[in-house]
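User: For my dataset I need records formatted as: sequence, then structure tokens, nothing else. Please produce one.
Assistant:
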Amino acid sequence: MKKKLFGFAVVISCSVFGQKVKIKKDIATVDGKEFVKVFKDPVAEDSFNIISLNGKDLFYLKFNNYNDPKEINYSNKGGFVSYFEVMSADLDTVYFETDLTHCLVGCNITDNFIKMLYGGRILKDDGSIDINRLEILSKKVGFEYSKKRNEMTNATNGTNTVIIQDSRPRNGFNISLGR
């Protein structure tokens, strides 16, 4: 009973204290206050431009994916892993990588990134980027997905040996018990 009560308290506190992110007409609001503009990139699929409310380009979210056999489960049969590379608006610098927001109904895949910007106070009141806080956030979040992808490609460069054993029954009369 205590575990159920504790779980209920955690769910309630997360729903009360979590930021409510909504995107309507390309404007992302956090807790009812306009925060940034989010535009889907017309050229690259599932990539986004993040623009300040006064029209200054801030970030570019580049969609990436790969297949990881370790991520295969009942809802992800192909082991599909997707993430955003958070880049500067001029596409010269990759700051960090972030997970997509996964939900069934009622959210946008950019919600996770917008919560990070808001919670990390990356944007100043005038809509410009606070570089010091962006560097701190970049160090906290890092490049987890690139590291995993590189480890996978380095591990599968031909060093694995697969031995296939012939499992046909031998000639004659065979009785298998206990199988």
